[in-house]
Design goal:
CATH superfamily of the domain at 36-111: Homing endonucleases
Strand order of the largest sheet: 3-4-6-5
Radius of gyration: 14 Å
Helix content: 25-40%
Mean pLDDT: 90
CATH topology of the domain at 36-111: Endonuclease I-creI
Largest sheet: 4 strands, antiparallel
Number of strands: 6
Number of helices: 4
Length: 111
């Protein structure tokens, strides 16, 4: 986070590809993730980021972890973009993060 005019703002570091690990992804899911239902995937709430920042995060998830992702616009007026991890990537995601997810939050990865 950086502070601009007494307001804290989240930023995506330039080296996010190297910084984001399965443990980091697990914490991200526990904090800002939501399971979308029986046959759907997982949403990462990235509402506070710009579209370009969300695109960077999506590309990291796809390239580094081989997850199938897309970007959804949750609120068109406010431009709240969220990353959706496809149900087709659920088994891979579970194998990456399940050891790091607190037992009370395993429902967020359908476990």
């Amino acid at each position: 986070m950086i502070e601009v005019e007494n307001k804290k703002t989240k930023i995506i570091p330039n080296n996010i590809y190297h910084l984001l690990t399965p443990i980091g992804l697990a914490y991200w899911i526990m904090d800002d993730g939501q399971f979308n239902g029986k046959n759907t995937g997982i949403t990462l709430c990235t509402d506070s980021f710009s579209y370009n920042e969300v695109l960077i995060l999506k590309e990291v998830l796809e390239k580094k972890f081989r997850l199938k992702c897309s970007i959804h616009n949750k609120n068109i007026q406010k431009k709240h973009y969220r990353i959706y991890i496809s149900n087709n990537s659920l088994l891979l995601l579970q194998s990456l993060v399940s050891n790091y997810i607190h037992f009370s939050l395993k429902y967020k990865i359908k476990l």
